[in-house]
Amino acid sequence: DTEVTQTPKHLVMGMTNKKSLKCEQHMGHRAMYWYKQKAKKPPELMFVYSYEKLSINESVPSRFSPECPNSSLLNLHLHALQPEDSALYLCASSQDPASTDTQYFGPGTRLTVL
Amino acid sequence: AQSVAQPEDQVNVAEGNPLTVKCTYSVSGNPYLFWYVQYPNRGLQFLLKYITGDNLVKGSYGFEAEFNKSQTSFHLKKPSALVSDSALYFCAVRDMGGGSYIPTFGRGTSLIVHP
Question: I want to staple A93 with a disulfide (CB 3.0 to 4.6 A). Which of A24, A29, A84, A113 is the partner?
Fold first, then answer.
């Protein structure tokens, strides 16, 4: 089973709202990633968690706040977003960040900020 | 430093014809190379990867890719295209010679297969 699940599939929020994106995997992977993807562009790395600790933050604005409650779950908390934050948010996982293992991606959450 | 280039924004091919989606890379050490496919409003799906060994790698859905070290290329191929292969294809590279352990993605190539 190489499935990464993400909820919700779609999210519409106003600029003053607080919402969260959720990602889950049960493959025993110890590295989890958040990416942002604009239409027809490659995914842009936002955060990496390695063994449940934040290891990479690609200078993401503080209105995005990641959380890794346990080895299977990854959340992305959203607050005071801007319309330009509208995008597809992808979660991915891999066995170990330093290995040759493949990244497996979830289906994404389509976020619209009004 | 690691980088990857997909020189074509779009590739058009007739159904039943062979297809090639190009990818070239630059690394300081040995490359780990990946191909992913993305259908509209979906996440990226893993197709195949090259780590070491045989230069011809076979993957999902009848796709294969050939690693060419001298030309620093890793082109994706399929002998007979299907309309359902129409999607966005991403090449990615990791430099195992001391570079980032996070893959770098190419800009993507849109494959359109005409009936």
Answer: A29
